[in-house]
Amino acid sequence: MWQAFRSQVAEQGVEVVTVGIDAAGVEACRPFIEAASPEHPSLIDEHHRVAELFGVINIPNAVWIDEDGMIVRPAEPAPAPPSIEMERNMNIGDPAELPPRMLEIFGEAMQIEADPPAYEAALRDWITNGAESPFALSPEQVVERSGPRNADAARGHAHFELATHLEVAGNHAAAIPHFKAAQELVPDNFAYRRQAWSLEPGPEGPLNRFWQGPTEGSEADWPYDGDWLSDVREMGPANYYPKWTN
Amino acid sequence: MITNTLTVDRADFESRTGWELKPEGACKGEVCIPLTEQITGDTIELEPLAAQLGLPLVHDADAGLWALGPESIGSRALATAEAPNLTLPTVDGEMFELASLRGKKVLLVAWSPY
């Protein structure tokens, strides 16, 4: 999705690095990466290291790093540039045949607010003007805006790493209590919730990992307090991403 | 950082946590935390060091594992604006270091297939 943008800006000394965060690993990411045919580094992050190291809390999120290795914008929502034709690799089939839950999920998702043109304009301004760009923040601003993290949240990140470690080792049942602890202790990290929900069985087929909630008749088996649809409705889709600010 | 022992390799600790052990203390970017005792050997006792840096250590007794979590200095996700050196495998399985892009502007984008 970022490949077309990358090819436009590569000559200006810019590199794009995409990081697929998924405890389900490289094979879960591969079809999307192959469809995008990136010329830029495309990395796989099974343990969500970008959460711990950069404060990534949702998807898509991006961080801007300057030529000297200084972060000039910490993790924030990063809608793909609207000037680029979106390639949706998700074949959802005939909408009329979608299960009601998926229609409701798409209904909420359509109300999620993002401002792709503003984000792209800011990004291009930084690419052209560097430190002079009003969108390049000072080191103090970067730290301040990097998001809250208290001792409980730090402990939640440790639980999440235990969870993904156990999940990757094939011990799904042992991972669940740690996913739950991480969700509770790092409540602002929606990627932690989505990751855990997406590893529970949904209906067979392309919708499987987007179901992210109990399946009909198996509600009692759902191990988590929340699920995508309930949580997004509770927070309000307009609050799903923090507002873009200079 | 995941470990099955509380005595860990110093280089592993440094590369996984981003905390560099120097004579003046444990440092990340411009932030240095003095330590009660200078660490000189190749191994580290994790518990006392984690306590001094405020890094949580979570134990799973059944799995026989500990996870060392990140710092929460100043109650912010980042202790410094200096980018940590992220090292991750590419889709082809080769290790890639973010620091290899020094000299370029980098847009680091996190996405997921779910």
Protein described:
- The complex is a heterodimer of chains A (246) and B (114).
- Chain A has 246 residues and is mainly α.
- Helix content of chain A is 44%, strand content 10%.
- Chain A has eleven helices and four strands; from the N terminus they run αβαβαββαααααααα.
- Chain A has helices at residues 3-9, 26-36, 49-54, 100-109, 116-129, 139-145, 151-168, 172-185, 190-198, 208-211, 228-235, and strands at residues 14-21, 42-45, 61-65, 71-77.
- In chain A, the strands form two sheets. A two-stranded parallel sheet of chain A has the order 1-2.
- The mean pLDDT of chain A is 93.
- Chain B is α+β, with helices and mostly antiparallel strands and 114 residues long.
- Chain B has a domain at 2-72.
- Chain B is built from two helices and eleven strands; from the N terminus they run E-E-H-E-E-E-E-H-E-E-E-E-E.
- The longest helix of chain B is centred in the first third of the chain and has 8 residues, at 10-17.
- Chain B is globular.
- In chain B, 36% of the residues are buried.
- Chains A and B meet through strand 1, helix 2, strand 2, helix 3 and strand 3 of A and strand 7, strand 8 and strand 11 of B.
Rg calc of chain A: 19 Å
* Total of helices of chain A: 11
The CATH class of the largest domain in chain A is identified as Alpha Beta
Classification by helices and strands of chain A: mainly alpha
Strand order of the largest sheet of chain B: 1-8-7
CATH architecture descriptor of the largest domain in chain A: 3-Layer(aba) Sandwich
Fraction of residues in β-strands of chain A: 5-15%
Poorly predicted segments of chain A: none
Please give the number of β-strands of chain A. Answer: 4
Note the overall shape of chain A: globular
Report the order of strands and helices of chain B.
EEHEEEEHEEEEE
**Largest sheet data of chain A:** 2 strands, parallel
Question: Which blocks of ≥5 consecutive residues of chain B have pLDDT under 50?
Answer: none
